[in-house]
């Protein structure tokens, strides 16, 4: 089993495991042409960097429309000082346009008025079904058949996009639900805009 501290952005053959900026944009463009359920599902993965197993637990109660955040339950096992397992939630800021779409498609604000509806999953699907939806849209977006064409590739792409845009690692660690900062630090190794600008001077 892969140790989190050994997590990499490339496999043993050098293939990248993340979607680049162009692929992320193409995926989002295709997602926005889908029926409401698939569109919002894919936009949630794109804008929060969550895992499919975390996405299927999201309920209307965890959507803060006025605060502009989505609360996610980190499903990786954690233990407190006594050694007992603890439940960890994290909030991720998301774009207002995405929240407007989510509210319109799923009636989030209305659902929050009912305890029963507020606690019901927005996407009552299996992880396998989510994987199938994401893969279908990635194929439609023209993303190459390679290891990064997967929900995990989308999650890694979220991490890289954040570091390229100068999001502090400790903040990204919180958003991605990493227990250790060393895990988040792998995204700092990605080639960012600044590094490309400096390298371009050698080629100019």
UniProtKB/TrEMBL annotation:
UniProt keyword annotations, A-Z: DNA integration, DNA recombination
Classification via PROSITE patterns: TYR_RECOMBINASE
Keyword Transmembrane: no
InterPro entries linked: DNA_brk_join_enz, Integrase-like_cat_sf, Integrase_catalytic, Tyrosine_recombinase_XerCD
Superkingdom field: Bacteria
Residue span(s) of domain Tyr recombinase: 14-200
Pfam families the record matches: Phage_integrase
Alphabetized CDD domains for the sequence: DNA_BRE_C
The keyword Membrane is annotated on this UniProt entry: no
Protein known as: Tyrosine recombinase XerD
Source organism (scientific name): Roseobacter fucihabitans
């Amino acid at each position: 089993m892969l140790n989190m501290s050994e997590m990499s952005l490339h496999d043993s053959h050098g293939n990248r495991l993340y979607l680049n900026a162009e692929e992320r944009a193409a995926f989002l463009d295709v997602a926005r042409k889908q029926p409401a359920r698939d569109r919002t599902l894919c936009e949630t993965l794109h804008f929060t960097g969550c895992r499919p197993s975390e996405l299927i637990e999201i309920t209307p109660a965890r959507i803060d429309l006025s605060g502009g955040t989505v609360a996610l339950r980190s499903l990786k096992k954690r233990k407190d000082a006594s050694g007992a397992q603890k439940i960890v939630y994290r909030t991720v800021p998301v774009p207002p346009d995405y929240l407007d779409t989510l509210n319109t498609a799923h009636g989030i604000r209305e659902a929050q008025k009912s305890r029963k509806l507020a606690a019901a999953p927005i996407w009552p699907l299996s992880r396998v079904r989510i994987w199938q939806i994401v893969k279908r849209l990635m194929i439609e977006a023209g993303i190459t058949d390679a290891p990064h064409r997967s929900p995990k590739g989308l999650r890694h792409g979220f991490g890289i996009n954040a570091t390229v845009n100068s999001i502090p690692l400790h903040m990204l660690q919180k958003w991605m639900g990493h227990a250790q900062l060393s895990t988040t630090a792998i995204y700092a190794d990605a080639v960012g805009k600044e590094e490309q600008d400096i390298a371009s001077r050698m080629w100019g």
